[in-house]
Amino acid sequence: MFKHFHLQTQLFALYSCIILGIVVLAFSLLNDYFSKTFEQRAVENMEQLTLKTSDQVDSLLKGMDGLALQIATNPVTQDVFVKRAKSDPVTGNYFLNHLIKEREVKDLLASINGPQMSVMRMSLFNDKEDYVEFGSKMDNPSSIVQRLASGEFQQWYADSIEKSGPIVIPPHSDYWSESEERVISVVRGIRDIVYFETNGFVEVQQPYSKLQALLQLDKTPDVQVYLLSREGTLLGDPDERLSRIYQQEMNLASGNLRHFYNPVHDRYELASFHRSAFSGWTLALVQDERTLFAPLRTLRQTLLISSIAVLSVTMALIFFITRRLTKPLKQLTRSLRKVNMSNLSIDIRNDHNQNDIHLLNKAFGQMFDRLKNSMDLVIQSQAQEFKAQQKALQSQMNPHFLYNTLSVISAVGDEAGVYKVMEMCHKLSNMLRYTTSFDDRDVTIRQEWKHAQDYLELMKERYEHQFVYEMAADESGLDIPIPKLILQPLIENCFQHGFKQTQPPWRIEVTAGVNGNRWYITVGDNGTGFDSIQLDSIMAKWRRLEDGNAVEINQLKLGGLGLYNTVVRLYMQFGHRMIFQVEPNSPSGTKITIGGDMTNDTGYGR
């Protein structure tokens, strides 16, 4: 992408992209971390605040219920209401005609309420229109009679008489007086401790303003607090649409939280719900998400500004660093443009005593020295190549002369009736033609096998009964391509080394075959074999070759192919996939196995 720009521009662009990626990644990770952490803490704070506020509401209601339970189980209350229910069927307020009992009950209520007047009103009543109360709020006799005689009260009484626990009445108008002040009530049944029958009720009232005071969160004025009844009605708020929204979101909430859009307030809100097991009311804390996450937006802006500042400073530093780093390279470029055949040197000024500049001067000086030596070698190589071409032209004449000579000898043998001489000349001619043909680098095992067979036949003619040989080959592997002249040198090695100090008869066994996806050729003799020093030398050379060390050129010349040269040429074609084994033969002699993959591709160095 930047290959057409200067090196300084490329380095600047590369490192700028890296730094930009790091900054963007860091910003993303930090933003993600702070977002999750802030949102988690905000949600936890809302849940804790919801639970705390709900506990405060429950504490208020439970305190009222405790007073109601204390009154309902008191012997004075039990004596009046149980006897009244069992023995006196007359309807009318019992306490108007029994002032002493009224005084006893009021004294009881006063002692329970205490001098601080902890509740607004305590009322005792039943379905016979009996009623007595005590509190800071004055009642109205006509309102009392009207309430006790109403069908609504009779229905409520009939529905509540079977309930054994506390009855929490949501905010309502004060039906015991003409006041418009709204109140909340907790009612307990006055139950016979023997028959567990409800003979009346105790109602403890508190002004609704006291509950509202608990719902006013002074420390978090942007949080709205709502109470929903068991039925989902919003308590204290006549807005039915808002009630339906919060009831719906409360039902849809997975757990205690809900993110939703509120069309009444035209905003997205986060609501935390908690349902009281005591009252059945659900407390909902609602907050505008924009207000809730405003600090997070500020934090993101701070992170973004900081990232831009860091990126700007870093890019400025990268610019100055890359310019300083590339200055010697610019000098080097200008100096290299002055290099020619007559000036193989450079001179870079080291104004700042930089070690890199000194190393560049030294490295290029050494390079130019090697270049000059290489040029001298090229000139010498060209001269040697010319001489080699002359020798090659001359060598092409020698086989032609030998072929003609062998033809003459064969003709003489034919005239003399010595057919064995003709066969030997034919085999020798085939061998010369095979070894001096450079048309193909690779041959097949079949061709190599035929060449080795001719050589063995000639050796058989020479040594007659003193020498025997056997050849066995798997026909399926004879067409595999292999390097030329790798088998005959192994057989020749038997005569030059194996049989040199061994008395006849001599024996050579040659086998060829396929094992899996590899071909192999084995040559075994009954000669003296390799001594330990020779074997160690052969294997040491093989290990150096396997380790990738260079091979000396004079060991590869075609005029004196030996065992090592054969192995080297196999390795150059098959690499680590080749087979090479040297081992003692039984009962005497040496057995050498070579081979390689059956694939045609070369594999040097694999």
From TrEMBL:
| Name the UniProt record assigns to this protein | Histidine kinase
Q: Does the keyword Secreted apply?
A: no
Q: Which CDD domains match?
A: HAMP, PDC2_HK_sensor
One GO term of the cellular component aspect? plasma membrane
| Regions crossing the membrane | 12-30, 303-322
Q: Which residues form the HAMP domain?
A: 323-376
What SUPFAM superfamilies does the record point to?
ATPase domain of HSP90 chaperone/DNA topoisomerase II/histidine kinase, HAMP domain-like
Q: What membrane topology was assigned to this protein in its record?
A: Multi-pass membrane protein
Q: Molecular function terms in GO for this entry?
A: ATP binding; phosphorelay sensor kinase activity
| Compartment list | Cell membrane
Q: Which Gene3D superfamilies match?
A: 6.10.340.10, Histidine kinase-like ATPase, C-terminal domain (3.30.565.10)
Q: Which UniProt keywords apply?
A: ATP-binding, Cell membrane, Kinase, Membrane, Nucleotide-binding, Phosphoprotein, Transferase, Transmembrane, Transmembrane helix, Two-component regulatory system
Phylogenetic lineage = Bacteria, Bacillati, Bacillota, Bacilli, Bacillales
- Predominant place of localization: membrane
